Amino acid sequence: MTIAAATNHDDFDRRQRTRWWMMRVVIYGMLLLWAAVCIFPIFWTLTTSFKVAADVMRGNIVPWWEYTPKWLGWRSLGLSPDTIGNVSTVREEFLKRFFNSVIISVSASALAVILGSLAAYGLSRFSYRFGFMRNSDISFFFLSQLILPPVVLALPFLVLYKELALLDTHIGMIAVYTLMVLPIVIWIMKDQFAAVPVELEEAALVDGLSIWGAFVHIIVPLVLPGMVAAFILALVLCWNEYFFAALLTATDAKTLPVMIASQTGSQGINWWSMAALSAAGILPLVFIGVLLEKHIVKGMTAGAVK
Amino acid sequence: MSIAEGDLLHTVDTGTLSPRRMQLGRVLLWASVGLMIGTFAAQALFETGYISFGFSNWRPVLFSYFVWAFMLCLSRVMIYGEQGKKALFVLPAALFVISMVVFPLVFALWVSFSDWNLASLTGRKFNGLDNVRQMMSDPFYWNAMFNMVIYVAAILVEYAIAFGLALLLNADIKARKFWRVTFLLPLMLSPVAVSWMVGKSMLEIRFGPLARFAKWLGWEQPSFFGSPEIAKLTIMVMDAWIFIPFITIMLLAGLQAMPKEVLEAAEVDGATPWQRFWQVTFPLMLPVSVTAIMIRIIFKLKIADIIINVTSGGPGGATDSVTSFIFREYRDRSNVGYGTLLAMVYLVLIVIFMTILMKVSARLVRRATGVDSS
Fold it and tell me: B2 falls in which pLDDT band (50, 70, 90)?
């Protein structure tokens, strides 16, 4: 009797263990599969930038085994080791676009974080009345901008910017991008300020600080991680934006995505240089994604999880 | 803007403001209003040819607007003191958004009822409801609108996949951070780069790895943009690839915030994993799911970059989104009057759709969880 029970128990135990191992295999298998789906296009972009025409046409995938990496793609951008010292008009062009992207996205994100944080703080601490609008209405007014499709604003901006001589300028693009990310920043920052107990400011006010003093000296250091998260998220959105940039810029303020999109030569596409350009466009964000993942996740999930 | 009663953060007003200071505030404010109106009127008269002197563009009017905005902020503090300083928090953002959204929208409304081709020399002409009539009989616009319905419906599939991935990431796994970062990467990539390197290179019929993979699977003549259905599907898959990480991350945060005791209690009660998921996890995740799907819908309604770069709406408008269709209307045909009307109609439809959706989903969440989602 006891022996039978023990065997039974053993049997059950073994079945459980097999089941557990099966689950492990399935889970890690699916994780690996999706990781491959996520990584392969990036891998493809990077490796294609080191191929020559024949390698591209043959569809070789694994470097050093199926083909020997060459600097062709990066040479066409003037960024390969042997051309980096020389004068290169393509590199000039590329760097100009690259820094346009940097200037526009960083300034727009910074401006959005400043404006958005102030508004979110005000809305979380004071009651406003603006005509018929109360706090919740003002909040909704800001957040509802998220729904606004860019295409609605595109043409008015095109015409108004032309009249204001803001077409194809950094300032014009910064203003558009700030508008684009402002609702997201306000959404994130509202959540951040709501988590800060109001007693902190009350204590600061008692100690003789003004409301702005309390905001700058007490609150901003506390919500700085949230501001960083909002900034990074805004940066990603601005860096990748294409629609407004394609319509509102021509030569001076053209950003990297617009340059990437306009790379069709007369003899079809030079995939190696296209890949090098795309790689240069996505690598900064891949680095940001890997290094600052925590902040991005924090920004995206703010306000969604209570 | 004035401050109503009931601030969360109470402040004590110290001292009274001198009448001279308040007077000065009002004077400054009205002087800047005068300056702005004056500049605007002068430029308008110059542009229409009534006066012969003026600026070469409208930028001075913009500067006078800035002066006015600054004076408005300053005068709040001068007139209302401590209360005015509170208004300063919201005022800059509000002025910015109003000037960048409300004014252009009014302008767009004005343009949308006119015949205006930027390429022609005749300029703007009011044409009443002609654009509306043209829109009603424009098969491509309604086709694009229909495509948007399908694109939005595809979010349900994205959601299902993302939920699966979130459950995977929430399982008891090693190196969770590594997997999370890897899964997040597609969201970081520029849609333009993705459309070129994935849409045009990896899907290239002759050498693209995905085309070769499809051939290996037994699809003899893989063509990802040949037939309308497949082209639409390809676009949806690429867009899903970029945005699934977003839904996954939100759902993962929801899963991690879920109280463990509930699941354990269900397990003790003998619920199977399948039951545990449908009767405990899924209802508890409903509020997060609704938020994630809402934001995803908002982003989906703006889909354009991939379509513009990969297919330009082809074949035969099968992949067109409303945004990419209007984009071509602007850029290729410079048809701004008609394009703007289409955009305005789209905006109205979106606002109606989102309002209904928010109401319905709020009710859904309330019924399922008894908790107000807002």
Answer: very low
Give the residue-averaged pLDDT of B120-137.
Answer: 79
Give the tens place of pLDDT for each residue, B38-47.
Answer: 888 888 888 7
Q: State the pLDDT at residue A7.
A: 65
Q: What is the pLDDT of residues B237-281, one digit of tens each?
A: 999 999 999 999 999 999 988 888 888 888 888 888 888 888 888
Chain A: closest CA distance from residue B242 (Å): 9
Measure Cα distances from A1 to A6, A9, A12 in Å. 9, 12, 17
The reply to whether B264 falls in a domain is yes
One domain, residues B336 and B206: yes
User: In the predicted model, is pLDDT for residue B151 greater than 60?
Assistant: yes
Residue A64 belongs to a domain: no
**DSSP letter (8 states) at residue B96:** H
Q: How far apart are CA B161 and CA B155, in angstroms?
A: 10
Question: How far apart are alpha carbons B334 and B206 in whole angstroms?
Answer: 36
Q: Which amino acid is at B221?
A: Q
CA distances from A52 to A67, A193, A237, A279, B87 (A): 9, 54, 33, 16, 61
- DSSP letter (8 states) at residue A63: B
| ipTM of predicted assembly, 2 dp | 0.89
Interface of B with A in 252-271 (CB under 8 A): 253-254, 257
Closest among B310, B335, B307 to B321, alpha carbons compared:
B307
In sequence order, what are the beta bridge partners of B114? B126
CA gap A259, A90 in Å, rounded: 11
Range of the domain at B23: 19-112
Number of H helices and number of E strands within chain A? 14, 1
Report the candidate in A34, B31, B224 with the shortest Cα–Cα distance to residue B39: B31
The reported pLDDT for the residue numbered B5 is: 52
Distance of alpha carbon A216 from the chain centroid: 27
> In B, which residues are within 8 Å of A304 by CB distance?
250, 253-254, 288, 291-292
Residue B172 vs residue B162, higher pLDDT = B162
Report how many domains make up chain B.
Answer: 2
Examine the pLDDT at A295 and tell me if it is beyond 50.
yes
Burial code (b: 16+ CB inside 10 Å, e: under 16) for B49-87 equals: eeeeebeeebebbbebbebbbebbbbbbbbbbbbbbbbb
Q: What is the pLDDT of residues B212-221, one digit of tens each?
A: 888 888 888 8
Q: What are phi and psi of A128, to 5 degrees?
A: -110, 155
CB of B175 less than 8 A from some CB of A: no
Three-state secondary structure readout of A229-257: HHHHHHHHHHHHCCHHHHHHCCCCCCCHH
Cα distance between residue B274 and residue B285, in whole Å: 15
Q: Compare B201 and B357 and report the one with higher pLDDT.
A: B357
Beta bridge partners of A268: A265
In a domain, B23, yes or no: yes
Q: CA B135 → CA A112, B328, B344, distances in Å?
A: 36, 15, 12
Q: What is the CATH number of the domain that holds B178?
A: 1.10.3720.10
**For B248, what's the count of Cα atoms within 13 Å in the CB-facing half-sphere?**
26
Close Cβ partners of A93 (under 8 Å, ≥ 6 residues apart) = A259
The mean pLDDT of A61-90, rounded to a whole number, is: 81
* pLDDT of amino acid A65: 83
* CA B125 to chain CA centroid, nearest Å: 31
Which residues of chain B have a CB within 8 Å of the CB of A38?
A: 182-183, 185-186, 245
Cβ of residue B328 closer than 8 Å to a chain A Cβ? no
User: In which domain, by residue range, is A261 found?
Assistant: 89-301
